[in-house]
């Protein structure tokens, strides 16, 4: 025979499950946010100092738009959970992505930076 929980214990149990779910979801979303920041930094480093074709620039612009959409989705979910949610932090990350996107675009409108790759001869 399975003992049924007392109503007071059931409420406490449900609250514990809600807290556990919120914590696990928050951990997952924070990991996604960290990975997103790493992707943005990598994209910035790959475009910095190299002359990109117009196709590469378009790919970079689309990629940054995708990152902005992903950031919006993560922010929406973090608002629902409301644990360690900082709208100011999200706004700073969003502005950084926009700045990287505009900086890359502006660099190619006004000047091009080229770097020669030297191959060592054996």
List keywords for this structure.
single chain; 122 residues; Topoisomerase I, Chain A, domain 4
Q: Can you offer a commentary on this structure?
A:
By secondary structure, the chain is mainly α. The protein has a single domain (7-110), classed as Topoisomerase I, Chain A, domain 4. The protein is built from three helices and no strands. The protein has helices at 7-47, 54-81, 87-110. Helix 1 (7-47) runs parallel beside helix 3 (87-110) and helix 2 (54-81) packs antiparallel against helix 3. The radius of gyration is 23 Å and the shape is rod-shaped. The protein starts with 6 loop residues before the first helix and ends in a 12-residue tail after the last helix.
Secondary-structure blueprint of this entry?
Elements: H1 7-47, H2 54-81, H3 87-110
Helix pairs in contact: 1-2, 1-3, 2-3
Helix-strand category: mainly alpha
Rg on CA atoms, Å: 23 Å
Terminus-to-terminus distance: 80 Å
| Low-pLDDT residue spans | 110-119
H and E string: HHH
Number of strands: 0
Helix content: over 70%
Top-tier CATH class: Mainly Alpha
């Amino acid at each position: 025979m399975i003992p049924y929980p007392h109503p007071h214990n059931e409420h406490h149990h449900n609250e514990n499950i809600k807290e556990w779910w919120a914590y696990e979801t928050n951990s997952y979303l924070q990991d996604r946010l960290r990975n997103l920041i790493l992707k943005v930094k990598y994209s910035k480093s790959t475009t910095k100092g190299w002359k990109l074709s117009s196709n590469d620039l378009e790919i970079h612009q689309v990629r940054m738009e995708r990152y902005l959409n992903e950031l919006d989705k993560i922010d929406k979910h973090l608002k629902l959970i409301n644990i360690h949610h900082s709208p100011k932090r999200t706004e700073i990350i969003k502005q950084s992505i926009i700045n990287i996107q505009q900086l890359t675009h502006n660099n190619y409108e006004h000047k091009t930076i080229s770097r020669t790759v030297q191959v060592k001869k054996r």
